[in-house]
Amino acid sequence: MSNVENRPAEQEVCSAGSAIATEPDAELLHPREVPLGGPRAMRVRRALPNRDRRMVGAWCFADSYGPTDITRQPGMQVPPHPHTGLQTVTWLVEGEVWHQDSVGSRQLVRPGQLPLMTAGHGIAHSEQSPPEHSARLYGAQLWVALPERSRHVAPAFEFYDSLPRHELRDGAITVLAGEVDGAVSPARTHSPLVGACLSLPGGGSLPVPLEPDFEHAVLALSPGLIAEDVPVPVGAMLYLGRGRNETRISAQPGGQALLLGGEPFREDLVMWWNFVGRSHEDVVAARETWEAEHDSDAAERRFGAVHGYDGPALPAPSLPHARLKARSRYHPHR
């Protein structure tokens, strides 16, 4: 998914120099609403980057959306756009998304399936609801920042139609990335992290094992979710800090949440629009290359071409007048 804001927030950068709490914490992060495209676009709830906290482990971006009725509507329509220095994770609860990218991948994604796209030094992709789509669209889009040793790898796409799953009394834990209580996702990651879907179809309570060396957060996808005795509104994220061996969530019937976590990311990042780099110059170079390449017929491209998409690519927004600089992982009032 693209960050399609015309004025991407300059705050979407973070510094490794920030102190990181080593004790359990509980901090509710409220999302902001962002249009996914033009004036009539579907709207999403953006929990990361947040004005109070910009990363959880290597997870640096978290949008959730729906359930949205897209009957007789186009649904998700995101034209080809670029990425650098990250991995994208799509997770659907309802609906379908058609993924196409510049390494030749063409994949229809359905609920419970995991598409993992590694941008590396540069990739382009589009995301669309197919013409014959379900009545509702409901899910999340996440980004993982690549560490320095991996951020220039060749772009790639992986797809998994089944994932390891813990069945518990009141629900289930599906492991998207990393490991939860011995269940290991097949998805390739480049830093120690975890991602899991927590589902409570009949409501109730779900114990969730945690790695105490990781920081964690719970992203609410449905109403009525409670974590660590804190109500978490739809689209909001409860940051849990480090040092926990377990957390427990409760929910109404149909409860859905995502667990995100990992070792605190200790490298400086500059994240602007769809690019994750290390400096202002990284971002400027990526933007200039995309503007020169997209919709061109050049044989050699950094980002490549998304063949099969009918329409123009997304142009990059204008850069801010100020120089992009790394800022704290969290708001300095903390």
TrEMBL record:
Q: Where is this region: Disordered?
A: 314-334
Query: Residues in domain Pirin N-terminal?
Result: 42-144
SUPFAM superfamilies, sorted: RmlC-like cupins
Q: What range(s) does the Pirin C-terminal domain occupy?
A: 199-292
Q: Which Gene3D superfamilies match?
A: Jelly Rolls
Q: State where composition is biased (Basic residues).
A: 322-334
Q: Which family does it belong to?
A: Belongs to the pirin family.
In its UniProt entry, what is this protein called? Answer: Pirin family protein
Which species? Saccharopolyspora griseoalba
Q: What is the lineage of its organism?
A: Bacteria, Bacillati, Actinomycetota, Actinomycetes, Pseudonocardiales
